[in-house]
Every structure is written in structure tokens, then in C-alpha cells.
Model the fold of this input.
Amino acid sequence: MPSLARHALIGAGVVLVQWFVLERLVIYGAAPDAVLLWVLWMSLQYGRQTGSLAGFAAGVLADVAYGPWMGLNMFLKTLVGFFGSWFSASQRELLILRPGRTFVVALVTALLHNGLEVLIVALETSSRSLSLVTADWLGASLYTAVLAFLAALFYGR
Done:
């Protein structure tokens, strides 16, 4: 199977797993974002163009599947795919293979991604809810980083 079709099917599978499984594993209002991790991995592995395209496609699928804000996931995932490739090739390998570094990179990326998402949603809805900060920003970022850590542990074996 060509790599483009394989990666497209994997991306669609990640969106489906996110929609059917991970959105049901909510802890105190926070859910992990496997789509974000997949876009970051594609960007680190294959560069800026592939990461941006993967982010765009996964974001559109995520918006259609479970997003009430049409275009928000697409915009944020495309940004992650674009900016996730700012590391040199030697640094990319270290970031992908080491669980501790993977945790830190995923945490920083998720904090930026979820922070922008919370900011946009709060401005749009004029919300001042503390749960946006605690659950949707900090909790979901930490949950996503833990998921990345576990994935790196199993990927490295």
C-alpha cells in the first residue's frame, strides 16, 4: 500500500479512535487528544508540508466528527503540523524515541494548542468559567502528554 494512502487511513483511524473511545475516557472534564499527537508525530517525522497537510485533513475530519466549532480543529491542527517541524532531523529522532522527552514535547504542544482553543472559545462565547482553564486547558494537556508518554513507551519496545 502506498505510504500516502497508509498514512491517510491511519489518520482517519486515529480520528475514529478519538471520537469513539478517547472522548469517552473523560477524567474531571478532560479528554486526551490523540489527533494532536498524530499530527505532531507526522510533522516531526516527515516535515512541515506533510505535517501541515496531515493537520488540515485530521482537523477537518475531527470538526466533522465531533466539533461544534467548524474549522477550529482544522486551524489549530494545521498550526501544530506547521510549527511542529522546527527541529533539526537529529533532534526529531531524540524527541520521538525518548519517553521523557516525548512527554515534555507533547505537554508543551498540548498546552499551546489547548490554550489557543480555550482562548478562542472563551472569546467567542464570552465565558469566564474556571473549568475552561482547569479541565479543557491544563487537564487535557496533561492527559494528552501522559498518553504520549505511554505511546512512546510501547513504541520504543
